[in-house]
């Protein structure tokens, strides 16, 4: 089993400056490699440069730039070039599939926040034996950085990443061969229906309220963003006040992100501890949050008809604030660690199917919160009906496997 551990770094002032220089130099390497690929394609008869070609050039860097790129790990610079190579692979894949291409972009210093070390011991070493009751990680060109290790690391450390979030630094350990920790059997199976009004509803009829962290901080975010917009373009990114306004917005979003993740972890742990099997809908979140297509007006060339984009934007914001994708990912990880089972079932018509008689009709969903079967008259909460149908479909999956 693979598990990721994230710990806070406590660098000294000198080490913090060195970490910032490491990020800037890797960002410069990424942008330089991207520029080389663009120039080769435009001016050299559409020549495509591959990762192997650019990786071979890394050996020449210490000769002419020993103070910058030459001081960092060779393997970490290779990982940065692989990151760019993956971006181009994804670009060509989208082109072939007829999707929006999304050509790789240059990275600003504020948007390049992670350096990857592909192997423990190659430019980076995780010290598993704390000295002076303090855990440290050794980074080439920086030294031994104190780490706040709040839980034990299990398994074998494969890759190590150094990440910056605002003013704070973190080390991320990806470990494999992590042993599972099975929980005692509870003999319970449950279905859950994800929603926006309620975070989730169980097949037992329990509703878990949606905390709406983004909405709770919306006023503070609005004030901070309005303050940021008052700076004229010619002075942006040049004054301390502008940089402080940017950091304030990033701090607010970081707090929202941590609150949401904490809520997801606690909710998933409660489900895993109480049930052997958890069933949920297989959701296409990207499709559900896609903006509606424009509707050209046939009578007026260049004009468009109303397509409900404003209302859809509000719904999309609410769905993304709930964070279904992150929660289901955390639920699957905790289930694997505890030897539990998570089943994803088809989401079609789960809220339109009567759990009593099986009648499927759009008219069964009277309102967003009420379900009333037009065939047998069964009346219940719509989210509870969805969870019951999810549980029923999960039972068919288990019966077919038996």
List the helices and strands and how they pair.
Elements: E1 3-10, H1 13-43, H2 51-56, H3 61-64, H4 74-97, E2 114-117, E3 124-126, E4 135-139, E5 143-148, E6 156-165, E7 168-176, E8 189-194, E9 198-202, E10 207-209, H5 213-216, H6 218-229, H7 240-274, E11 277-282, H8 285-288, E12 295-296, E13 304-305, H9 309-322, H10 324-337, E14 341-346, E15 370-372, E16 379-381, H11 382-401
Parallel strand pairs: 8-11, 11-14
Antiparallel strand pairs: 1-5, 1-7, 2-6, 3-4, 4-5, 6-7, 8-9, 9-10, 12-13, 15-16
Helix pairs in contact: 1-4, 6-7, 7-10
Molecular shape = globular
Sequence of secondary-structure elements: EHHHHEEEEEEEEEHHHEHEEHHEEEH
Are there runs of 5+ residues with pLDDT below 50, and where?
A: none
Q: Strands of the biggest beta sheet: in what spatial order?
A: 2-6-7-1-5-4-3
The count of strands amounts to 16
Broad structural category: alpha+beta
Indicate how many domains the architecture comprises.
2
- Whole-Å distance between the termini? 25 Å
The major pleated sheet works out as: 7 strands, antiparallel
Mean pLDDT: 90
| Overall helicity | 40-55%
Radius of gyration: 26 Å
Please work out how many helical segments DSSP would assign: 11
What fraction of residues sit in β-strands? 15-25%
Can you put this structure into words, describing what you see?
The protein is built from 11 helices and 16 strands. It is α+β, with helices and mostly antiparallel strands and 402 residues long. It is 42% helix and 20% strand. The chain has 2 domains: 11-176, no CATH class; 189-210 and 263-294 and 307-401, Nucleotidyltransferase, domain 5, CATH 3.30.420. The mean pLDDT is 90. It has helices at 13-43, 51-56, 61-64, 74-97, 213-216, 218-229, 240-274, 285-288, 309-322, 324-337, 382-401; strands at 3-10, 114-117, 124-126, 135-139, 143-148, 156-165, 168-176, 189-194, 198-202, 207-209, 277-282, 295-296, 304-305, 341-346, 370-372, 379-381. Strand 3 (124-126) and strand 4 form a beta hairpin.
